[in-house]
Amino acid sequence: MVHRGIALILAMGLNKASAFASIPPQPTSSSCHRCLTSMLRPIVYSTDVYHPSSPGLMNMNNEPHHDGKGRKEYDTAKMAGETIPGEMKRLVVTSPGNGTSVADCIIKVQTVPIPSPKPGEVLIRVVAAPVNPSDYGGWYKSRGPSSSSYPMPMGIEGCGTVVSYGGFLGGITSSLRCPVGTNVGFVITDPAQGSYSEYVTVNAMTGAFPMPEDVPIEDCASFFVNPYTAVGIVDTARRAGSSKAIVHTAAASQLGQMLNRLAMAEGMEIINVVRRAEQREALEGLGAKHVIVTDDGQDDDPTAWKAELRAKVRDLGATCAFDAVSGDMTGHLLDCMPGRGIVYAYGVLAGKANGIDPLDLIYRRKELRGFLLTAWLREGGPMRMIPRMLTASSTVNSGLKVGGWCRSQFTDTTMEGAHAEIVKLLGSSITGKKLRIRFDGK
Ligand SMILES: NC(=O)c1ccc[n+]([C@@H]2O[C@H](COP(=O)([O-])OP(=O)(O)OC[C@H]3O[C@@H](n4cnc5c(N)ncnc54)[C@H](OP(=O)(O)O)[C@@H]3O)[C@@H](O)[C@H]2O)c1
Ligand SMILES: *[C@@H]1O[C@H](CO)[C@@H](O)[C@H](O)[C@H]1NC(C)=O
């Protein structure tokens, strides 16, 4: 058990239950010859050996092992029979275009060598990856048009299967957390890589998250950015002014739907603000009790919906708002919050914030703050971060199960189709259609 505990602490982001479930039973009987071989497998199956040029080695153990108690051991041999090609395809931005639109940036499929995992890293065959607002915003906005930042690899998170790992000692630790064959969600930490790739390497402890075994792995594509943000929002609202309700905008987003389901379980009220009447229906279908529509199709006058919002804020005791929209919404929200209320900007769907009345800040002591997932995770240093990650990942991993609170609604596409498809969705309505790039040909 000791090594599992160490893996757990090192991982800092690991859900106890899922980690334990995903680690195969370790051999316990040293008298079993076959199991002795399997104990050495982490060493045998290092990157050098795990290569198409030596398929014979891979297949020599191609039968299930047992742990001396009649349990079947994880079938790494089957995975090891898989051939890893030398090259892979990935998506890159080659130019930000005019720097103002997703449509104008130039995106290409690039063929590059498959990255080889360094010690402590795993190689993942990617199954699927989502296209998030934080992704496409960065394609044309966050990097200057300096030629050195292009071609820019795309995609922050994704999911897939561990097919190999690097190094000797690194191989042992990696194999405890996510042995070859484990289905994982992953987060990119190397800026030279992106999740819209057929293969990625990530740090086994901090970049790869074993997923629940009874969920199709492609449904774990959005396992990180949105679910952990939903957990972070509820936590932040509780601590800042012990809000009993949260105002949330663009509230029919995937994240907004997750937040409604999570809040119900956590005893928190969500005051949903959306821009279309259909979005009210979608949210009420999930059980949302408070939905305000900002556009009644008649005019641009915000007076009516703001009065409705003010009344909800007062009645439900909301002291904070989380705003994914920005633009004019920022000023409207500050206006509707009570004295000392806080508006957290966490998305820029409508561009730069407008309409802020400084009197709200000066005399009514209202605050405008930013919320960023990674900053929330790191808040208070490592001693706070470890328990926070443990709690969050256990909430998320149980929520990823079929019918769970952090499931997503996906629309599938290919690497070749992704750019045109996201432009089309952004030009119509993206609600309920999180774009998911499939790498498994499905
Ligand atoms: N700060 C952080 O750490 C963090 C982390 C995760 C997510 N986020 C943010 O969370 C937000 C939601 O992400 P998601 O992946 O859940 O998005 P999503 O599923 O793509 O949904 C986007 C939603 O926003 C609506 N929308 C788009 N532009 C709008 C506008 N100008 N005014 C009002 N509504 C608008 C869309 O409605 P239509 O159907 O009408 O277009 C849709 O319902 C994004 O802003 C994202 O950047 C931030
Ligand atoms: C940038 O390109 C997009 C799409 O091609 C276009 O709609 C937009 O007007 C352009 N903006 C500028 C500032 O040139």
From TrEMBL:
Residues 1-19 form the signal peptide. It comes from the Eukaryota. Residues 100-400 form the Enoyl reductase (ER) domain. InterPro entries: ADH-like_C, ADH-like_N, ER, GroES-like_sf, NAD(P)-bd_dom_sf. One of its GO terms (molecular function) is oxidoreductase activity. Keywords: NADP, Oxidoreductase, Signal. This is Enoyl reductase (ER) domain-containing protein. It comes from Cyclostephanos tholiformis.
